[in-house]
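[SOLVED] Need 3D model of a two-part complex

Original post:
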Amino acid sequence: MKHIILASLLAGAVALPAAAADYTLMAPAAPGGGWDQTARSLQTALQQEGISKNVQVINVPGAGGTIGLAQFASQQKGKPNALIVGGYVMVGAILTNKAPVTLKDVTPIARLTGENEAIVVPASSPLKTVADLVAALKKDPGSVSWGGGSAGGVDHIAAGLIAKAAGVDPTKINYIAFSGGGEALAAILGSQVTVGISGYGEFESQIKSGTLRLLATSGDTRIPGTDAPTLKEAGLDVAVQNWRMVAAAPGLTPEQKAAVTADIQKLVTSKTWQETLKTKGWQDTYLSGADFDAQLAKDISATETILKDIGLVK
Amino acid sequence: MSTFEFLLQGLVIAAQPMNLFYALIGVTLGTAVGVLPGIGPALTVALLLPVTYRLDAAGSLIMFAGIYYGGMYGGSTTSILLNTPGESASIVTALEGNKMARAGRGGPALATAAIGSFVAGLIATIGLAFIAPYIVKLALVFGPREYFALMVLAFVTVSSAFGDSTLRGLTALFVGLFLSTIGIDQLTGQTRLAFGVPDLLDGIEVTTLAVAMFAIGETLFIAAQGLQGPDKVEAVKGSVWMNRADWARSWKPWLRGTVIGFPIGAMPAGGAEIGTFLSYAAEKRLTKHPEEFGNGAIEGVAGPEAANNASAAGTLVPLLTLGLPTTATAAIMLAGFQQYGLQPGPLLFATNPQLVWGLIASLLIANFMLLVLNLPMIGLWVRLLTIPKPWLYAGILLFATLGTIGANPSVFELGMLLGFGVLGYGMRVFGYPIAPVVVGLILGPLAEQQLRRALAISQGDFTVLFTSPIAAGLLIVAALALIVPLVLRARGRGEVLSQMAANED
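Solution:
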């Protein structure tokens, strides 16, 4: 059995046509999380669409992706076939960890997906609307415990933005960080915390079955199939999305960067990728080139502001 | 259709020859990758998941179930034979299992692990089918304060794995607790004790520490003894099969391990290793052969292995009923489901009964295949011990390194592996137990985070820790477990206890 696998791997390696690049794709997280799933979906789509014959995924977990990022920037410098997956969480982690290697040290290629944050309460909660939540926050910010993902991540940032928009001191929010959305979901379902905040996908099936009540979502538009308002419609000037992107190694020539960008563009318009987006419930937020660079710079400075407001970054 | 009919239908599909073949391939691949130290079930499943994509839904679920169980079992084989647990859940297995292997009883140890895993998997999978909705309600009652109480209980009970000296055991435990404070604090995002080293930001990986302390430390220890070491490891003494006494001593631990492991696996923040700790402690207290604990007691293998497998099935309870992945392996399974447009959650049992029952049937079949594959292999595995030591331990070093590098390709990680290996060697030389270090690293952060979460939710009110009936109950059990032995000792039965303690290795 092993020999057969080995032989087919070798045969695959030998039979590569020169045109298609072999990509090495780093998921700067442990297997199973959002970045790992993005990386493995990219791997499948790139191979099935024939954009690349052979894509290898490497997991380098740790510290909101900053460990993988640092390793990627130093080891893959100038290599045109190395990619790394990243996203909004990485922006926050770089700031809170004061990471020496930042997104400036790699070559961002494109934003690929986005997911709206959902603000939910257990079905039995007395809070019915965003206005109720704001009222509770104003009365005593500490009494409203927020259950969400890691400290300084997009969930925490969104909670801080909501408090700030509601005119409540963001340093006073009682944010309880859980490792990963799953554990947070359990705490919300068990009414251990007042309100839950995480990606919509984490809560979707609970919202549909009626065990959780969706108060609002954080995008610019409502999520189809739900009747909850966006935060803006509910009177809070907050719009935030957990986006994911792909970046290439530092030190690429403009031609090399253009080649990678072209491959990724081919990927996002492909049928396989579009189907993946549908099954995973990811929004297509593809943005590349100068537009993406500008948006990235904007996101980084906005994140820095709110993390300072929450008190996580001095 | 009733639950039973659905299950029967699933079994009929899963038992088709082609599907049985897929199960066999899955179990073989899973075991082969799972035996590498440092590669736990999560990574095994992640690496092999693409293999299943080519098949239809039924075939892929079955192969997947096989990989999962194979990966779990592969870890215990190396634990028992080579004292090198591949993942945190098989650390406890190494304690007694390796002692048995050295005494020529590796065969029965492997057999009780395989059959215990089978029994536990069988019962737990059936439990999953019939009582999942009730178990999950219980699991949701567990909030931070209840988890904290559970961790206190775990701390008290694992002290039975400390060996003969409480002081040395506690010292080792505190080394582990110290290591657990390194890295980013989960609750505030601030770094602690990382001294600006980026690789330390995420703390110390449990697998790296476990593989280093056990595998590398063991290798150094053996090498340092040179040729005069107490070499005589007998590969086989007596039968490689379990004898009547082995069966008699194994079946109760299997059942107890299942009962302990399943609910803990079902808890969103439980973790398979907690179940194995509690099971080991329970067996040690209940055994009729206390003198054998520490020298290769079969109960100490049977119970934790059953608990480990039962908790793996327990993990599926929140996954299937809530869509809640509580372990890395479960998160990867979730990705596997999505491949077929399945969204696990409260509606899954209603909207996709065929696939759910297909999965449960696949687990039963895979579980059976594991037994079919591994029981005949035991004779072969045990021969590993007859390999000349220099070759064997060179091989262990190679695989431990490969496994660590495979899981996390980083020079720093490799350095840590070797550094902790030297620490493990030093502790062996000076007679400190190894397991408490790893236990501290696992339990420390859980206890700390849950305590701080509970206090944050209550806004600093300490009484909240005792006002929940479950938390109070767990704390009372923990207190009793601590006090009763002291009282017994004071009443003159101390002789027996100290006799027990003196016999521990």
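Edit: DSSP finds 20 helices and two strands in chain B.
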